[in-house]
Amino acid sequence: MNRKQSSTLALTLICLILGFMMAINFRTQQDVELTTGVRDTELRSKVIELVNKNENLETHISELERLLNEYRTKSVSGESTAEILTQELDQIRHLAGLTDVKGQGVVVTINDATSESNQYEDPNLFIVHDEDLLNVVNVLKAAGAEAISVNGLRIVAQSEISCAGPVILVNQTRLAPPYVVSAIGDMRNLESSLNMRGGIVEKLRFWGIEIEVDVLEDVFVPSYKGKIDFKFLQPVKEGE
Q: What PANTHER family does its record include (predicted)?
């Protein structure tokens, strides 16, 4: 082997060793980066979890501080704790639909079609069904109605509207047409939601169902008179 060949072989060996060392170094760095990345992800998740918990605590603290300031303000003005709690209870009853209320809104009167169907038409298409009444109530809710009643029966979270043969059940009470739906809220929003093109009023009138929408400054909605019974619902204690 001459000198030139020896130099070439030595250079080749050096390059191989250098390449091997660089490969090992790259693999080591890659493993470290991968481990660090996994660790960073875990830490990031922990940080996000702690931030969320902290935000929830801050919200809860803010609410408690608001109530405390309210109690202090009313206490200074001469109101007792019992009076403050009574006011809060009245507000809860009001929101739950357990009190009579009034305000601007709409009154919707719905009745079966008066025109007779021919022998080839299904007569059930021309009478008011429970789903028709339910659709009217849902449209009013979506339009921001704050209180709704059907034939004097208050609609609350536990209310049901279902079919019972020739009549409709609302709050376990049998109702027959005409059906009068009273709703309190922004009367223009309620009216426009009912009378919108392709809306519930237009659909019912297509089948001859009689439906009228009256916009009034003073609508009365009575309180819920039924029984509220929770069989499965249980309150969650603070911290659970």
A: UPF0749 PROTEIN RV1825, UPF0749 PROTEIN YLXX
Query: What's the pLDDT tens digit per position in 116-143?
Result: 655 556 677 889 999 999 999 999 999 9
Backbone angles phi, psi at 166, to 5 degrees: -80, -5
Helix (H) or strand (E) segment spanning residue 44: helix 3-76
Residue 80 to residue 181: CA distance in whole angstroms: 40
Q: Which amino acid is residue 139, in one-letter code?
A: V
Domain boundary assignment for the chain: 1-76, 101-221
For residue 204, give both structure tokens: 């019912």
How far from 189 is each of 133, 211, 222, 231, CA to CA, in Å? 19, 18, 22, 37
For the segment(s) 101-221, the CATH number from 3.40.250.10, 3.30.70.1230, 3.40.630.10, 3.30.70.1880 is 3.30.70.1880
- Condensed to tens digits (0 to 9), the pLDDT of residues 136-172 reads 999 999 999 999 999 999 999 889 999 988 889 999 9
**CA pair distance 231, 134, nearest whole angstrom:** 25
DSSP state letter for 176: -
